Amino acid sequence: MTLPRLFKTEALVLRHRPLAEADRLVTLLTPRYGKLEVKAKGVRRAKSRMGGHLQPLTRVLVQLAQGRTRYVVAGCQALEGFPSLRADLDRLTLALYLCELADRLLVPGVEAQMPYAYLLESLRHLEEGRKPNLWARRLELALLRYSGYGPELQRCLACGRSLGPEGGAFSPLAGGLLCLPCGQGAAPISGPALRALSLLEDASAAELARLDFPPSVEHELEAHLRAYIVHVLEGQANTLDFLDKLRHVPLISGQR
Amino acid sequence: MQEVAAGPLARLVQELLRFPGIGPKTAQRLAYFIIRDPEASSLAEAILEAKERIIFCSQCQNLTDVDPCPLCADPRRDRSLICVVEDPLDVLAIERSGRYRGLYHVLHGVLSPMDGIGPEDLKMEQLLARLRGGSVKEVIIATNPSLEGEATAMYLARLLRPLGIRITRPARGLPMGADIQYADEVTLARAIEGRQEL
Fold first, then answer.
1. Is the ipTM here above 0.85?
2. Test mutation, A27, A92, A242, A244, chain B, max B CBs within 10 A
C-alpha cells in the first residue's frame, strides 16, 4: 500500500520502545493503513507535548509525515485513554496481551478495519470490566481468522464429519477440530466448549454481551486457543508469561 | 566504510555501534575522534576502571565503588523511607531536587510484559529482603509515569501490601513550563484530582 507523504489517521497505540536519546518507535494499528511503525521524536522528555498521548493502549488521532526511513509523528491527540484499565494490573496485562497478539499476527501496511474495530471493542469492554476473558477469546479468534490462521470449528479435519454436542478433539497441529475417532491422542474438547467457540465467532457484540459461559468452559476455551496460538506464533506471547505469574505464582510465600 | 578502514579502526566502530543511540555515522565520527585525540587513552583507562571497580550496592542496588554506597552509609538519611526508582540516573535526578532525605532502591528496569521483562529480571527480591527487616515505614514507588512504570508500581504495591508498609507514589501532574492545552487526558485528569489549596 502506498501511503501519502502527510496524512492524518485514527490509531491504537499497540506498543513502543525507546530509540536514541529521547525518541520512541511506536507501533500503531490504523483502520485504513493497518499496522505502522513510526518514529516519535523527543517524546521521552518530560516536557514533550506528545509523550503522554502516545502511550500504549491509547486511541489517538495522529498526523504522520514521511521521514527518511520511516514515518514520523508530526502531531497527536489522545481520543480515548482507558484509565480504569490502566489502574488494574490484571486487566492491563490482558489488554497488553491483546495488543501483542495484534502486533504479532497482523502484517504491516495492510488495511485492518475489522481487527481495529474488534480490538477497540475488546479494550472498551475490558475498560468496563465486563467479561474480559470472553472478549479476549473473541479477539483471539477474530485475529486468527483475519490473518489467515483461523481454526476449523465445524467439521472434523480428517473425515469431514460435522461435530455436535458429543464434542471431539482440538489439534493445533491439524488446524482445528477432529472427531473423537480421528482425534485419538489430541486434546479433547467438550460439546459445550465447541458450541461456545462457534458462538464466539458468530455472535454479534450485543449477543456476546448477553452470553455467559461456565468457568469450566472458559478455562477449556482459553487452554485450546492458547495452545493453538502458541502453534501459530511458534512460541508463547511474552505477555502471557507475566499474566500466568499474576494468576498463579504466589507473590510472597503463602500469598496467592 | 568499514571495508576500507584499518582493522583496529573497523573494530572500534563496531564496538561503538553497540552503544544505545549510536548509529553507524556517529560511531565513525567518534572512532576518528578517538584516534586523533591525544587524551583518548585516559578514556580507555576510565572505562576499564569503571568496569573493574563499579559494583552494585548491597543495600540499594545502585552502582557504586564502595559498599554500602555513600547514600546508604550516610547516617543523616531517613532510614524509614525508601524511594524505589527504575534507574541509577533517577537517583541523581531526585537528589538534584534537594527535597528527599530517605534511602533509595534501584530496580534496574521496569516490568515490560510485551518485551518479556518480568519481576525476576529486576531487583525486586533484594527490595523485599530489605523491607522484611521491619525498620521501613514508607516506600515511595517512583517509577516513570509510563505504562510500564505504572504496571511496575501496581505489581510492587501488590507485592508489598501484605508487609503492612505505607506505599505511596509521587504526585502526577503538569511539568513546569508545560501548556495545559497540550497535556494528555490522563495527566490532566490526575493533575485535577491531585489539586492543592493555594
1. no
2. A242
